[in-house]
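Q: How would the structure tokens look for this protein?
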Amino acid sequence: MTGVVEAGGFLFCASLMAMVLAAVAAIYAVRPSSAEPMSRTQARQRAEALSALGQTLFSDPRLSASGRLSCSSCHDPAHAFAQSNSRSVQLGGKDMADPGVRAVPSLKYLQAVPQFTEHFFDSEDEADESIDNGPTGGLTWDGRADRGAGQARIPLLSPFEMGNTNAKDVARRALAAGYGSPLAAIYGRDAVEDPNAVFHGILKALEVYEQAWRTFYPYSSKYDAYLAGKAVLTPTEALGLRLFEDPEKGNCASCHISEPANDGEPPQFTDYGLIAVAAPRNPDIPANADPAYYDLGLCGPLRTDFLGRADYCGLFRTPSLRNVATRKVFFHNGVFHSLKDAVTFYATRDTDPGHWYPKLPDGQIAIYNDLPARYRANINMDPPFGGKPGDEPRLNDKEIDAIVAFLGTLTDGWTNSK
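A: Here is the predicted structure in token form.
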């Protein structure tokens, strides 16, 4: 038996509505304004056609300049739509030799991420709506894309990912690969004559595909079954959950929300906020060989609309922890390669900094070494962070192991073998 059966109708309706709305928006964006309105049945059929096309495009390396890199090359369906290897950053570009600068994020459970805003207020039925939670939402590590189409645009045109120079390059490669007919069937023959319309159609097809709930947000983990009363956590997993939610211990749920919403929606394990955790600088990223280079997240350099906003430097979006136990690397820079190390970093970043940060020639520890000193006031100090070197951490090794065990219950595809 699989995870949350009761949620199936809720998820199907939400997914279908999202797919239909995305399909309608996509079609009217490329069809002439005089086009006849679609019926509900037609809109659903178009949504299904777009999703099928998006799934095919997602795995086709012919859209890349090298002819060797597809979306699924980095976002592997067998690995929760994240990377399948342990490289901190992936190689891409026209000759597949250009390294990226960030770890690959998972594409699962993005359906509820709100559009980016600098001032996020909780809804009145969820929390205190008077509290400004600050920068929140958006896709990618720095929140610079608001929709799936915007997110899909980034790797297609990135010089160190799929390596296309512009939209015309993508359109030309798509048409050469035989996508003219399916695109024309959805958008009309005239749209296929316009490279920009072809490009836009590809982006929307990818966006609609990523709204398929059975694939991208099935809520089929053991924890979902536990919430539905259909599974029992082991004593270690149950301890891990208590520690995860305890504000004086792990305090993980303060950002990675673990309780269902008031409307019954399963927990997303993220509050969508952007936060500075001061992950150590990763020497395995070639860009970091330049001591003047810093990836500052919300304030650049990849995101450009907040350059110079000192209070935003070092902030990266809080990812969902669903399927986190399947990941090969952790944090925006892929600096850690085990889930236990990632959890331990939270517990001992400030009480044992020498374990995480390198020593300077004078013997001092280069704490927070991937964030210039002028931005370090942005670093989050809420528990389990904080304390001084030599203090007892808020979590001991047994408790860290328990949290890791609990995080293992968030992996999709759980079945009850009894």
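The two ends are 9 Å apart (CA to CA).

The chain has 13 helices and four strands.

Upvote if useful.
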